[in-house]
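Internal tracking record. Fields below are filled automatically when a chain is submitted to the structure queue. Please do not edit lines marked as system-generated. If the sequence contains nonstandard residues, flag them in the REMARKS field before resubmitting.
Queue: standard
Priority: normal
Entity type: single polypeptide chain
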Amino acid sequence: MPNSAKPKPARVLIVEDHPMFREHLIQLITRELGVTICGEADNNRDAMILLEKEKPDIAIVDLTLRGGSSGLELLKDIKALGLEVHVLVLSMHDEDLYAERALRAGARGYITKNEASSEVVKAIRCVLEGEIYASHRVTARLLQRMSQKRTPSTLAGVDTLADRELEVFQMLGRGKSTKDIATALNLGESTVETYRARIKDKLQLRSAAELYLRAGQWVRDNGA
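SYSTEM-GENERATED OUTPUT FOLLOWS
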């Protein structure tokens, strides 16, 4: 006789630091997709514990988490440990700035929080089915980047900054001090100073004033 047993619902881990948004997301995906929520976390440490314990099919991850945790760093940890879980990044951050970085770090998809609920459900379903989800805009930009040779001018741009360097650069552009950044990212002030020095070197800036000006202009231009 054929096996008529229904497949078990997919197990989902939510990594999001805003309780109200997390609650809305859980209601949406359990209603529309019939999944099982196997855990919730608002920081990298708790997320890693749940990932190893619950072994979810998919983790839906924000980029900015509690206590200075970074979703990008979580992605790298997942990849380094070889954990078998698909990750969809669902974030407030502009996809122009972070989608490619997230995909390179191991995410299977990237979608922003300003998308319609139906598109979020579509992205989750896509990743659960083993596909990669990205907007048409991101896909077009990635294909264009692949078809172009990198020149010295592009190598000197913000796209050369490492993920944590970009976070520091963004916060400098918002007028944050070294102390403010260290507190927000849970880093030592000397570590933030090291990141500042690296950023100045990569962007070929001569002084702290030039760094703040460049970062401020970048934030204004990108709405970051």
